[in-house]
Amino acid sequence: MIAPAQAARLISQLSNDSVEITSSFDGERMNFFGTIVPDAGSTEKTVAGPFHVVVVVLGPTQNRVAREMTNTFGIWRNTGQVEFDNFPSYFHVLSSGRLGDITDITTLTTNYILPESHTLATSNTDWWKSAVFGQQLVRLMTEQGLFGVQENGVNFLSDTFYSARLTLPSNAPPGPYIALTYVFKDGAIIARKSEGFAVRKIGFERFLALASTQQPLLYGLVCVILALFTGWLGGVIFKR
Questions:
Q1: Percent of the chain clearing pLDDT 90 (strictly above)
Q2: Model-level pTM?
């Protein structure tokens, strides 16, 4: 990872440090804002731009497998797969301009600012196959609303003060999230900061989520009971 030139520092803040998912959860609006100030120890009272800001929001990571399904005589078969290491379950970029105008492709890739950067970590030795499968995985995650890039998502309210807004979708995976903010000047990173927040399920949704992984037998029994109760209730209602 490229080390930033310490010419400035970033003072930033998140609007939420916790997002709670309930049965009525339909998304959550997050606000990011901050100001660029002289680096600690600097004799300058102000910093001179122009600046660009890029905010990268990452969700929980896990190893994810992308598979190719082929229809052979009406039967769908798995004919290929690639496993990607530490792949984010959620990834969104907000920037104050076109990423290609802010900096070069090498800086964007080495700092994992591009969605495709996260498909480079794979144990597969066939780089072409990994690239094709990675591109399709990013496409699928984008169609689900879990990956995205907004190249006008950061607005400067003054020369050094910015704000950004992101709406987490209703299918945002629960777990720890991190917001990485980069300040660019003349194509170089001059300041960066990371801040965390959590997306967690509460109430009955939390019970189901925990039970499905920690107590699968209890989870299965609850599902069977709910199914039986729903069937019985439906029969009573329609009988009337």
A1: 32
A2: 0.74
